[in-house]
Amino acid sequence: MKLPSKGSSVDSILGKMKERKAADADWRGGKTFSLIYPAGEEVDRALHEFNNLYLYENALNPFRFPSLHEMEKEVVSMTTNLLHGDENAGGSMTSGGTESILMAVKTARDRAREERGITEPQLLAPVSAHPAFAKACSYLQLEHVQIPLADDLRADVGAAEKLITDNTAIMVGSAPNYPHGMIDPIPELAALAAERNIHFHTDACVGGFLLPFLEKLGHEIPPFDFRVPGVTTISADVHKYGYCTKGASVIAHRHKDTGKYQMFLYDKWPGGIYGSFAMAGARPAAPIAAAWGIMNFLGEEGYCRLAGRAYDAARKLRAGIEAIPGLRIWGDPIASLVAFGSDELDIMAIGDVMDDHGWHLDRQENPSALHMMVSPEHERIADQFLQDLKNAVDNHGASRGVEARYS
């Protein structure tokens, strides 16, 4: 396609965009279980206003746009407080969980180089850790060492201890992990790291804005944040269960001092000092404004309400899945992520039937599973989903020739 020789009207362009958009997943109807975290029309309207106010600004230069600088500082401060950081805590915002993880790995790598003389660094992470850690190792030249999972689908602490070497620069645990919704044994893993002066990162991209509010609602949540000795940095995505628009995440440091290893500074060019805490240079302002706006709009009360709705929806869906003969939940997820499969049925064929009914469930393997990340709005569709799932189990053998596709 070439650039048009002449421009088109806004109405014409919008018409084409809407026509294409009609083929996208129906997240407003609760048909998706990842990528989008709908919290209702009231939140959507607020986000629309917050985004539009900062549609054009650039967060690269805090001196030109001090309002953005102040909002970012306050988002980070509210987040570190939520994660039980003290007055020494600090951090910055990034475009999402992957970038927060990249910056955490850079911090650990450079810290290990300066403080421990490590020139061939290793990253030690559970098999269930997000692929962003593998990406970080590829980009930043660390050896990626994987910790096997125990029978409960959490990181095997004994195996982790045996894998630690003098070159281990960073250890990782998830709260929760994406594949199964399990919270790794963070205190035990962080203790292993602390004994050896190894940087420990808790990946709470999913749980950072959910687990604290479930705890406030009285649910028992395994320790994962800065209350755990040895935890050095934490990633938490505001655009997941913080209900901000994409892309907004926070990398939080227990001590501001480790932030110097995250920072990039350069002055060997005509443009003066260039400094950045993120991979990106120019940064969109709208996600920062939206994060600050939605955190103040919802407050603790609003987040607790939404966390309770997501939790209740997940419990209902889980109970309904377990009641269908032949299906089982993998692990014992504590919050809103559910992965389910079968020891006797073709779960991928069942997923195909659900696709035919307009549902969008992610596929997983080892073990084979259909994956759900439950949001507050899913409480509206739980009954219909479970009915369709039961029908899919009953009829999956007739779905679009699945025997040939999966044999």
What's this model, at a glance?
By secondary structure, this protein is of the alpha/beta class. The protein is built from 12 helices and 13 strands.
Give a written overview of the molecule:
With 407 residues, the chain is α/β, with parallel strands linked by helices. It has two domains: 49-295, Aspartate Aminotransferase, domain 2; 300-394, Aspartate Aminotransferase, domain 1 (Alpha-Beta Complex), CATH 3.90.1150.10. The chain is 40% helix and 14% strand. It has twelve helices and 13 strands. It has a seven-stranded mixed β-sheet with strand order 1-7-6-5-4-2-3, sandwiched between helices. It has a four-stranded antiparallel β-sheet with strand order 10-11-13-12. Helix 2 (41-53) packs antiparallel against helix 9 and helix 3 (66-82) runs parallel beside helix 9 (286-322). The two termini are 40 Å apart.
